[in-house]
């Protein structure tokens, strides 16, 4: 696996160990994108945030 994939795996493992902190980061990123785009992509950012949360909360393989 390449460096980016390795970093993503490490980030996912850290998020699994600290899900509350990861939730804050996901929510902050979602808010920032919504703010920058004037909420034009709100439905997409909601889905992306949910998929991110599932990837470390449920142990799922979101996006795979």
SSE layout and pairing:
Elements: H1 3-17, H2 19-37, H3 42-57
InterPro entries: Antitoxin_Rv0909/MT0933 (IPR028037)
Biased composition (Basic and acidic residues): 1-23, 31-57
Protein name: Kanamycin biosynthetic protein
**Mean pLDDT across every amino acid position:** 89
Radius of gyration: 13 Å
Number of helices: 3
Total strands: the figure is 0
Beta content comes to: under 5%
Largest sheet: none
Quote the distance from N terminus to C terminus.
Answer: 14 Å
Uncertain segments of ≥5 residues (pLDDT<50)?
none
Shape annotation: globular
Quaternary status: single chain
Class by SSE composition: mainly alpha
Protein name: Kanamycin biosynthetic protein
Pfam family, one: MT0933_antitox
Region (Disordered): 1-64
Biased composition (Basic and acidic residues): 1-23, 31-57
Description:
Residues 1-23, 31-57 have a biased composition (Basic and acidic residues). InterPro entries: Antitoxin_Rv0909/MT0933. The protein is 78% helix and 0% strand. With 64 residues, it is mainly alpha-helical. The chain is globular and about 35 Å long.
In short:
The model has no long low-confidence stretch (mean pLDDT 89). The radius of gyration is 13 Å and the shape is globular.
Keywords:
mainly alpha, Kanamycin biosynthetic protein, Antitoxin_Rv0909/MT0933, 64 residues
């Amino acid at each position: 696996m390449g460096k980016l994939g390795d970093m993503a795996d490490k980030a996912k493992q850290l998020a699994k160990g600290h899900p509350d902190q990861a939730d804050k980061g996901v929510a902050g990123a979602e808010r920032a994108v919504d703010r920058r785009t004037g909420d034009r992509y709100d439905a997409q950012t909601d889905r992306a945030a949910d998929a991110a949360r599932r990837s470390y909360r449920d142990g799922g393989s979101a996006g795979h």
